[in-house]
Amino acid sequence: MGIYLIRRLNLFIATSILMVSILFLATSQFPTDRVYALTGIDNPSGEQALQIIEDYQLDKSEFRQYIAYVQQRLTGNLGISTTSQQSVAKELATVLPTSFELACFSGLLALLLGIPLGVLASLNQHKLTQHAIMAITLTGYSVPVFWLGLSLSLWFGVRLGWLPISGQINLLYEIKPVTGFMLIDTLLSDSSYRISAFKDALAHIVLPAVTLAVLPFTVVVRITRAAMVNVMNQTYIRAAEARGLHTGMIILKHALPNALIPVLKHLGLMLGAFASYAIVVEVIFSWPGVGSWLVSGIYQRDYTVIQGGILAVALLIIFLSILIEVIHTASNPLSRKELYASN
């Protein structure tokens, strides 16, 4: 297992270096001055210009410039935003938890609804019920996320007025950031209106979370159903039934844990699509996360924000994909058997 973890670590490092290399090549193609694209500083002073040349080795060969670029980016020097004149790293640290909160809430919602529905679809003997569940999931998978977000905003936000359609919390509430997760920070606040603020933050996250959860929800339902159908036909399940064990116990203790292993694998494979959907959802609902921050930087030609946002999103996808693969291998007896056999 140790050799396997070292291989995964090497894969993460190699993929990250490749991604940074692509960013370096893209930066050289930006339609602006190289110094401005790298640092975000417009019309630097003589001292600043010398420091930039030294930091990025701009008077050296392309290879030395590449090494300097990698060192600067991976040590946290992402330059300053040309729009706000603030450090890109600090802005990134502010918007990342907000995106994490939305992603975690959406993922939890998809799992809590998708797994039971997938189990129900696999066990229900009525063809009409099975076809109805699969038709709903296929429809949800096919609906464009931008259309779904706008439709939910129109119906539940504008016409019915049940839920807010933009932002993370009402501006009347002043919540001191602690964890960066608004739902948690409202409860940790010592203000007298923390419960009201929590309810308001919860209302704000419902529409974007539901919109973002549709894609993983449909995948979870379909994969859970297929995995449960396969598991329930296995010999050890038939043996448990022959011993007279209750159906609910068989499902919860024997069938479902094994059926969730393929679900975990497919969730890792769809991280890229999930991240692209999240960017669209954040823009639609004005959610102050990495996606809306990155799109705003693209509109304003904020080159350092573009580089920082792409770097952060790409590294997170690479890291989480490899982490899910490691968890899948550790939790899957067949994968462990193949792993030890190869060693």
From TrEMBL:
It is found in: Cell membrane. This is Peptide ABC transporter, permease protein. GO terms for molecular function: dipeptide transmembrane transporter activity. It is a multi-pass membrane protein. Keywords: Cell membrane, Membrane, Transmembrane, Transmembrane helix, Transport. SUPFAM superfamilies: MetI-like. It comes from Shewanella amazonensis (strain ATCC BAA-1098 / SB2B). Its main location: membrane. Pfam families: BPD_transp_1. The chain crosses the membrane at residues 9-30, 100-120, 132-156, 201-223, 267-285, 305-327. It comes from the Bacteria. PANTHER family: DIPEPTIDE TRANSPORT SYSTEM PERMEASE PROTEIN DPPB-RELATED. Belongs to the binding-protein-dependent transport system permease family. OppBC subfamily. One of its GO terms (cellular component) is plasma membrane. Residues 96-328 form the ABC transmembrane type-1 domain.
